[in-house]
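Assemble and predict.
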Amino acid sequence: DAKTTQPNSMESNEEEPVHLPCNHSTISGTDYIHWYRQLPSQGPEYVIHGLTSNVNNRMASLAIAEDRKSSTLILHRATLRDAAVYYCILRDAFGNEKLTFGTGTRLTIIP
Amino acid sequence: EAEVAQSPRYKITEKSQAVAFWCDPISGHATLYWYRQILGQGPELLVQFQDESVVDDSQLPKDRFSAERLKGVDSTLKIQPAELGDSAMYLCASSEGTSPLLEQYFGPGTRLTVT
């Protein structure tokens, strides 16, 4: 599976936008970029995924670099409930569909 | 909103004892996953079922771990005998199918402590 690199931790103020980066320099043409997050004492939950174009949903936005070697998960207005570990994961659309989690980015929201 | 159910939420057992975890996926979800998450790390896939069949158990320590999904609905993960290193969170997830584009829905997990 292709690898991703994320900062171990980040902090952000409540009600401010948050930009969580992910590097994936060895991404292949059929790899989708998925984001999951894990709130304290809970199982992971799906956030968003994309291939080439930027994506928006009710939870977040995903901005994908033109060369696809990096992406950014954007939380437009962070709340205390967004404090979690965020995982950036690559999944080949036509290959092994296993979700391979790294250590993710631990996001702390400052009230 | 439909959820993946797991029980128990917490389990403390002594090493060399047997322990079992249960998972009930979202109704209609054909694919079921068991993950193990060691503190400070991301979840790691142990076994994947498609209906009642095992699709991937390459990371399952088969000398002590077993998993079944007899009727293709709920599933049980068993450890016998438990070892100290098995202390972890055991997560169950389900999805509508095996496509990598499908979202996986996770349960709350079972936290196992082996003493």
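Chain B is about 0% helix and 50% strand.
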